[in-house]
Amino acid sequence: MRTGPTGRVAWGALLVVLYLFLLAPIIVVFVVSFDDATFLRFPPEGFTLDAYRQVFANDDFRSAIQVSAVTASITALLAVVTGVPAALALSRVPFRGREAMESAFLSPLLVPNIVLGLALLVLFAPIPLTDTYTGLVLAHLGITIPYVVRTVCASLAGADPRAEEAARTLGADTFTVARRIILPTIMPGVVAGGVIAFLLSFDETVISLFVSGQNVTPLPVAVLQYVEYRSDPAVAALSVCLVVLSVVAVVFVERSLGLRRSLRSG
């Protein structure tokens, strides 16, 4: 249906209002992060970069960033190593119970994180795996593998299986087909899934709160502990840094591999 100039202006104004409504909290946090006060206030009355300097000068934050970076990197790598073969099996290998297996891989997305966190605490405490890198990585794998499986399955759904059949007909072995045809096809989904897994693990709060401790404290938990006693622009500055990290990662994947193309089908 065609719309006139008035309709297009109204539609554009509505979109602007909706975007401002969604982005308003981030905009407020961004503005507050440059305030020179020792507490959070809006609107700010001064301008300084001290809050950003405080973030990187805080020993607890630096240690927590290191824990989150190591945990997220290992989690993303293991999620890709586990999720890619699972996606290939679910998409290319017909077997009995495939639907049940696919549901099992995607089921963590349906369970609230607080339930998963409590269950993992009960499971890990006697072993013990709480307050360890191993426990933190295992806990994060449960919520990141489904995203890798989903993105790789989406890439495979848009691929033509006849290319693989033609390669085998021409004498290519399984390794050659996987390296020359399957891997380039699923690479956007693999990278997108790996980036999503990294960001989810880096930013996971609820599950980390249950399985972390004093020795291994990821960044989200450190932030919660910090705001229990203090509420200053350093928290806003750290939040801005995390938002920028997420945006840069997503834009990089979109520009280099096409994130929307990777997730379009499936």
Automatic annotation (TrEMBL):
Residue intervals of the ABC transmembrane type-1 domain: 65-253
Ranges annotated as spanning the membrane:
12-34, 69-91, 103-125, 137-160, 181-202, 234-253
Q: Which domain of life is it from?
A: Bacteria
Q: Where in the cell is it found?
A: Cell inner membrane; Cell membrane
Q: What's the main place this protein lives? A: membrane
What membrane topology is given?
A: Multi-pass membrane protein
Which key words are in the record? Cell inner membrane, Cell membrane, Membrane, Transmembrane, Transmembrane helix, Transport
Matching entries from PROSITE patterns are given as:
ABC_TM1
Tell me which family the UniProt entry assigns to this protein: Belongs to the binding-protein-dependent transport system permease family.
Protein name as it appears in the record: ABC transporter permease
Lineage summary: Bacteria, Bacillati, Actinomycetota, Actinomycetes, Kitasatosporales
